[in-house]
Amino acid sequence: MSPRRRDADSTSTARTHRRAELLGIAAGIFAEQGYAATTIREVADAAGMLAGSLYYHFDSKESMADEILSTFLTELWESYDRILAANKGARETLEALIAASFTAIDAHRPAVVLYQNESKHLALSPRFAYLNESRSRFRDMWVGLLERGVREGAFRADLDVPLAYRFIRDTVWVAANWYAPGGRLSADMVAKQYLTMILEGIQPHPS
Amino acid sequence: MSPRRRDADSTSTARTHRRAELLGIAAGIFAEQGYAATTIREVADAAGMLAGSLYYHFDSKESMADEILSTFLTELWESYDRILAANKGARETLEALIAASFTAIDAHRPAVVLYQNESKHLALSPRFAYLNESRSRFRDMWVGLLERGVREGAFRADLDVPLAYRFIRDTVWVAANWYAPGGRLSADMVAKQYLTMILEGIQPHPS
Amino acid sequence: MSPRRRDADSTSTARTHRRAELLGIAAGIFAEQGYAATTIREVADAAGMLAGSLYYHFDSKESMADEILSTFLTELWESYDRILAANKGARETLEALIAASFTAIDAHRPAVVLYQNESKHLALSPRFAYLNESRSRFRDMWVGLLERGVREGAFRADLDVPLAYRFIRDTVWVAANWYAPGGRLSADMVAKQYLTMILEGIQPHPS
Amino acid sequence: MSPRRRDADSTSTARTHRRAELLGIAAGIFAEQGYAATTIREVADAAGMLAGSLYYHFDSKESMADEILSTFLTELWESYDRILAANKGARETLEALIAASFTAIDAHRPAVVLYQNESKHLALSPRFAYLNESRSRFRDMWVGLLERGVREGAFRADLDVPLAYRFIRDTVWVAANWYAPGGRLSADMVAKQYLTMILEGIQPHPS
DNA sequence: GATGAATGAGTTTTCATTCAT
DNA sequence: TATGAATGAAAACTCATTCAT
């Protein structure tokens, strides 16, 4: 509206875009090589600029990882919260959560790999305290869901819930390490297959 | 010949012991913090010596990782080969392989974590070519086993074998990240539970 | 000639004003933090602009220091030269010089601090040769004055003139580090007190 | 006594010596060029080693400044405290404090210059909080002494004590900027001359 | 006049490694 | 066997400066 408004908007939008672009590049390399093993220069090279120039956009290497992870987790929890709010049965909820997780892997594969591989060390620094919080919420969500499912008869009565929680959590997220968007299997198909294996196992049905 | 012969022998044994001890310390820190994020000084500190002193025992940081990984893989394959040589049915073989894997996790947890997290990057260097070989053998073993199981009717006919291979591989090895020797569940018990989940899933049996 | 002539004039005046304003800001920060420890960005922030924008006004960081110092020294010497031209007795001249110095501190405190702290290093570069010239003139002026005062009986006969020169010089200029314009004591009052201490010391008069 | 005792001692002594030596070199360059304008490489060059090697001895550039300043201040206060404990009259105490200050300048000239030029900025960081404490104690000591002297009739009744405190403080410490150990005037002689100027001024005695 | 994005040279710092003792 | 002191290469980061818009 104001004559300067469009400028301000386009500028701020452009900056946001550039940041996102650079973070995408960084996330890819962090995921591929590991955070500690990646140098700022490698990221800058991939972005077509000099190492120092990255510091115009970001405070530090750590703040890049921070932004990658927090952005990813925010989006992830939005999708999880939507599912939980739907208040479906245990089985359907589990199904939706797993599908959402594979959708997240599809959309943010490098961020997932980074989270998977580095969150343990990063969480030691106060700046990354939210990683621990997220982990707790995650555990509570799954354990709660599994316990409800056992009560409701959706899951086996003799399920070791804490163990099953880890089983599912690991199994799903580690898939980010090999999942290739655009490969033989789409995220949806992998999700469906994994769901079947998790629910019914790999043995033939006795029925 | 030398009057110190007996001494020399005992020294050499002691040296072997010391190496193993140091490698155990190194593996623990590598696993905890990541290989690239761990400094030689941290390892030396934990061993109660100065950084330079480690070089009396080892050529380089890389050679420590090398020795940790190759020792672990050698042992692992010995146990796998024994199982494969027994020529049991697909289901029993899978059962034994998973049990052996958890036994390995129990005995070499840091090495497993190191393998899990770093083998991808390390394998790029020729020195670690054996990592790739092991990975291939591993995949062939599992894919072969699963295909045989499908043929024999031990596993579901509609199993996506490559996917199931990854499912099992990831699920088992990632457990090293949280498994605590001496915790609530022994390696054997975790193996049994995981086996049930892998074979039958988490749903109640329709039977 | 040009139809924008009047504009151009007012613009040029405005430019001069803006320069002076920016130099004032820069001088303040240089004085507070030290020249080397101050970044162009800090100056720009304080001026409400971006670092690059300062380069529209000034060639370089060095040229800012240059302009701050040369402006200050030019004014200072004008006031000194007026005093020297009056050809008064040694005591009265000293009195006037000290008063003028405190007036300069009052008017150009940051410039004085900058001169005090940085002239030694800056003077190494040819661009700042005038700092050395000023220093020499300064010394000659004071040593000459003190020697004359000793000859005329205005100052103690046993005065170590080079030492007294430094004593006075340091004592006066270093006051810039704590003098606060608008504080308890005006520049005039500080000058008077300092003059008394320099002339008569802090002991009571035996008279 | 113990066979390893001599080794341990000589080692630790050697390290202390080396540290002190390096700190002396660093202090000299810091004083000459300013702390911020001095690079670690310059210090290392002067010490005949590579920049990185300095980090075997010191954590950071800042910690070098820290150690230089704290060592100096500790020694300075030891000498001041000895004087204050003697409980002499105001004039004699002032005399002794000024002499002690010039002795400190003689022994630790670079540290004094560093303190003089950089303590204001450094004191902003919590690590250098002791600089502010020292400054307060310093002011209290001098103000107390001057007030006592005025009461006892040792100093002029109309003395502006806070101003006189600054006058003396600055006058003495700034001398570190030009004082050359081994020059025309020894520290003792400078102290004596300064003391005369401070007590009696530069005018001839009316007596 | 000012911005936003970059450069490039330099800074502090890190760290695997070496080596005389 | 281990220490203490260093090396040297590379890391993260800084900052004065440039320039198209």
Automatic annotation (TrEMBL), chains A, B, C, D:
Coiled coil: none annotated. It comes from the Bacteria. Keywords: DNA-binding, Repressor, Transcription, Transcription regulation. InterPro entries: Homeodomain-like_sf, HTH-type_TetR-like_transc_reg, HTH_TetR, KstR2_TetR_C, Tet_transcr_reg_TetR-rel_C_sf. Residues 39-58 bind DNA. Residues 16-76 form the HTH tetR-type domain. The keyword Transcription regulation applies. PANTHER family: HTH-TYPE TRANSCRIPTIONAL REGULATOR RUTR, HTH-TYPE TRANSCRIPTIONAL REPRESSOR KSTR2. This is TetR family transcriptional regulator KstR2. It comes from Nocardiopsis rhodophaea. The gene is kstR2.
